[in-house]
TrEMBL record:
PROSITE patterns: HTH_LYTTR, RESPONSE_REGULATORY
Protein name: Response regulator transcription factor
GO molecular function, one term: phosphorelay response regulator activity
Species of origin: Paenarthrobacter nitroguajacolicus (Arthrobacter nitroguajacolicus)
Leader sequence residues: none
Keyword Chloroplast assigned: no
InterPro entries hit by this protein: CheY-like_superfamily (IPR011006), LytR-like (IPR046947), LytTR_DNA-bd_dom (IPR007492), Sig_transdc_resp-reg_receiver (IPR001789)
Keyword annotations from UniProtKB, A to Z: Phosphoprotein
HTH LytTR-type domain boundaries: 130-232
Location of the Response regulatory domain: 3-117
């Protein structure tokens, strides 16, 4: 069971998040704090696996709390919960494992609990984060949320379940840098994440692979290596 602390200076926000977390059978004790000082006192006296922190709290902000607990020998996992996208860069500099935007969605919160569970169970290191620009806003996304990458000239478009993001990095550079993370080239225009592959399809119109609901072409040059990789992960071709 995962014991958590929810900290927000607005009581309704604390109760809403505690209610949503309480519906997850993986969650154990839920501690509540309505200020940064109360959150730190709770962390000193209780066993907490993860903290869900509002960023904008008076006196001690969520970022202040994260800085304080990062100095401990076994810090809890940190998830920021906020209506403000502008602090994402600083949040991930503090090794936050997730950044949730209000209003909260139950399915998005569940994915955060998935990440906490993985971290506790496997001792997984903090995920690699990627900086993306959306107009005047800078956001951070997790590399393991990227399902496939599409070449667009000197740029690459990163596709996730929720959106796509354009970064100024050639696909060939990502192919080399992300190979060890399970990304393989299937076409001059596509790089895919093996763990998001649903099936390989061989048909008269040419081979393709389904990745997170998208059907992507496989070039003849890349087909042998793609089949080898997918067979090693037990994904078999469909007729």
């Amino acid at each position: 069971m995962i014991n958590v602390l929810v900290a927000d200076d607005e009581l309704p926000a604390v109760e809403e998040l505690a209610f949503l977390l309480g519906r997850d059978e993986r969650i154990g004790t839920i501690h509540r704090a309505s200020s940064g000082a109360e959150a730190l006192r709770t962390l000193e006296t209780e066993s907490v696996d993860a903290v869900f922190l509002d960023i904008h709290m008076p006196a001690l902000s969520g970022l202040d709390i994260a800085r304080a607990i990062s100095r401990s020998t076994s810090p809890p996992a940190v998830v920021f919960v906020t209506a403000d996208e502008d602090c994402a860069l600083e949040a991930f500099d503090l090794a936050a494992i997730d950044y949730l935007l209000k209003p909260l969605r139950a399915e998005r919160l569940s994915r955060s609990v998935d990440r906490i569970s993985e971290l506790i169970k496997d001792g997984t290191p903090a995920p690699e984060m990627i900086t993306v620009d959306l107009g005047s806003t800078t956001r951070m996304i997790r590399r393991d949320d990227v399902t496939y990458v599409q070449a667009q000239g000197d740029y690459a478009r990163l596709h996730t379940a929720e959106a796509s993001y354009l970064i100024r990095v050639p696909l060939s550079d990502l192919e080399q840098k992300w190979a060890e993370a399970g990304f393989i080239r299937i076409h001059r225009s596509y790089l895919i994440a093996l763990n998001h592959v649903q099936h390989l399809k061989l048909s008269a119109t040419g081979p393709s692979v389904a990745v997170a609901g998208a059907e992507l072409p496989i070039s003849r040059r890349h087909l042998p290596s793609v089949r080898d990789k997918l067979q090693s992960t037990r994904i078999r071709p469909q007729g």
